[in-house]
Amino acid sequence: MFVHRAPFSEACLANYRPLVGPEVVDRIQRLAEPVRGARVLHINATAIGGGVAELLFSLVPLMRDAGLDVDWYVLDAHERFFDVTKGFHNALQGFAGSWSQEAFQIYWDGCADNARRLARAWRDYDFIIVHDPQPLVLRSLLPHDGIWIWRCHIDLTSPNLEVWNRLSPHLALYDMAVFSAPEYVPSDLEVDHVGIAMPAIDPFRPKNRPIRADDATRIPAEYGVDPLRPYLLQVSRFDPWKDPVGVVEVYRRIKAERPEMQLVYMASMAHDDPEAWRVYEETRAAAGSDPDIHLLALEVPHDQIARNALEVNAMQRGARVILQKSIREGFGLAVTEALWKEKPVVAGDVGGIRYQVRNGWNGYLVSSVDECAERVLELLRDPELSADFGRRGRETVRSSFLMTRLLEEHLGWFNQLTGHRVATATP
Prior knowledge:
The structure is a single chain. The chain is an alpha/beta fold and 427 residues long. It has two domains: 13-200 and 402-417, Rossmann fold; 215-400, Glycogen Phosphorylase B (Rossmann fold, 3-Layer(aba) Sandwich). Helices cover 42% and strands 14% of the residues. It has helices at residues 13-20, 22-32, 51-65, 79-92, 101-120, 138-141, 161-167, 215-222, 244-257, 276-287, 305-318, 333-340, 369-381, 383-400, 403-417; strands at residues 39-44, 69-74, 127-131, 147-151, 176-179, 193-196, 231-235, 262-268, 293-298, 321-324, 345-348, 364-366. The strands form two sheets. Strands 2-1-3-4-5-6 form a six-stranded parallel β-sheet, covered by helices on one side. A six-stranded parallel β-sheet has the order 9-8-7-10-11-12, sandwiched between helices. Helix 3 (51-65) links the parallel strand 1 (39-44) and strand 2 (69-74). The longest helix is centred in the N-terminal third of the chain and has 20 residues, at 101-120. The chain is globular, with a radius of gyration of 21 Å.
């Protein structure tokens, strides 16, 4: 199905002028002119949960506001397909293991079913942007002459070669591949054009815009969190790469010195991630019976996405310190969101987080449970340092990680791939 009923952001380019300056908006409008009216299709695995859906909720309407005709297609497949693709996702980020021929066949058959659905609803798209490995082989299954871009949001620095060698030949049919950091680009990639584009946030979505002060206390209380006592927060999937059990261990070390602390781990359970419930149960076992540990595994229907975004916003604004204790991380939009809200962040020294957090300037980068706990305790002891980190973090996002930058990059690719040469310098 095409996602038309999703609660897209209402942000438009004009709203960004006070944040990024008129010269940025004018440059975007000049880039958009040669491709105005172009038909664009985004394809990904889920409309709920995870960073890709977060991006598309905002990028799609912003592209439309720039004059493009944009659709968004979400894969429709059974649970076995998503079991396999979750395994592929982990493998491409470095998990060891092997896969049967049956697993690859399940993957192929699931993509073939979606290719048939797309063929029945097909339009003459000018640009097709395929996100991550789940729909990657659609390019081999759809005889379409548009320009195809593979947008990889995960860390490919050390992929499991069994999976990579089965999937990567299909990339030869793509016109461009885009990654979140230069070090993620595989050395054996056979694509004519390569781009680098770090993700970004939309400050006008319910998750990021200002909220009423009472919401920052009322909403945590609705989930059993005491708003009068400080709490740590991590907003992530229940995923081994996010190290939720490690987050619990960090909290226990902090709790020994600061018994008033609480922990909140908040996740939207995406339908393309059947592994999440297993990881949730492992984390629940690690948490034991501690009443100050709040593991929130939220299954969010389409009509509640805006409400869930407000809840995440309130939790982030109420937290004393925000964690992102990732072991691997393609980028980490939850970090971006926290920085935008002027919150001190302690995060794993990995992947795309390093492009956002400057260690000791707007947050801390850590590599172990003990280091993470000690850095959190430093921030709890020094509210002035926390406030300084927060102010610098917001400016980091304003200057580098807002949605206008991502839109400008997409327009630049479209112009490049269609042979347009657009002067973007401000007169």
